[in-house]
Amino acid sequence: MATAPAKLILCGEHAVVYGRPAIALPLADIRATATVTLLPPGSGPLISAPDLGGQWRVAERPDEPLSGLVMAVIERFGLPADVEITIRSAIPIASGMGSGAAIATAIVRELLAHNGQTLPPAAISELVYESERGYHGTPSGIDNTVVAFEQPIWFQRRPSLPPLIEPLPIGAPLTLVVGDSGVRSPTRLPVGAVRERWQADPARYESLFDQVGALVEQARAALATGDAARLGPLLSANHELLREIGVSSPELDRLVAAAQAAGALGAKLAGAGWGGVMLALTTPEQAATVTDALRAAGAANALVTTIAATG
Ligand code: PMV
User: Fold this and answer.
1) Which residues line ligand 1 (CB under 6 A)?
2) Calculated CA dihedral for residues 223, 225, 229, 232, nearest 10 degrees
3) Is 143 a catalytic residue?
4) Same domain membership, residue 109 and residue 7
């Protein structure tokens, strides 16, 4: 069995599509898993996803992005094709937690491991990026990167170069409370809406993206010194900019406000927006109070997770 973690974008989503930096974190305790078993000769690859409600032969749904990924990996690495790939995931789908990237990463790792092979994270990330394109059109690549590398990362696209990917020093553990709005929103919808608005008024959106980028730079410094009190307001300011960019929602705004009122150091939507999750940065002592406040404000789910300091 191979696994891969969920992820959160701590700050910089959307602006990252337009070349500004963003920071993403893996959530080691929320994972997707894939298991490969051999099928009789001639069966061809079969994908079983009991939690996600489906089972299909890759040959029957060749345009499905996971089918494309499975075929590409089997062909490229000469792997056995008569396999059943069973996927399980504790990561809510279409919620900004990287469910698609984690499932795809677990599949690639397991297909290779079943044949005694491994690949470095950068190569796995590239394969997963191709399958993410099937879901999202033009993803920045931040999701597949943080999931495959499984460490906090600084990510920035660059013209005519591969993206800049740097492991990010974290000076002290972070306590995050993740609140799920319960609204499922596919990434490509807000991403497409932002593109239309940017095309209609590039000066305004470039300025908003610059402001996000400046916050992300400051967040990096606060993370390095483990200064949660400084990081919190930066996250809340990022939420305000995401509202202006037009990707928040009444549910997300309500949860962010509830977390702030309950004493969180900062709070923001996380991921593409219009639904999915928000995150609140808290002290370890505040986490339970903020979790309760999120539930009281209508969160479909709220959980506490800790990001470890880096060595
Ligand atoms: O997949 P999500 O919901 O975490 O959102 C991806 C982040 C965006 O910046 C909105 C899009 C992208 O491709 O980076």
Assistant:
1) 9, 13-14, 16-17, 96, 139-140, 142-143, 187, 191, 271-272, 276
2) -10
3) yes
4) yes
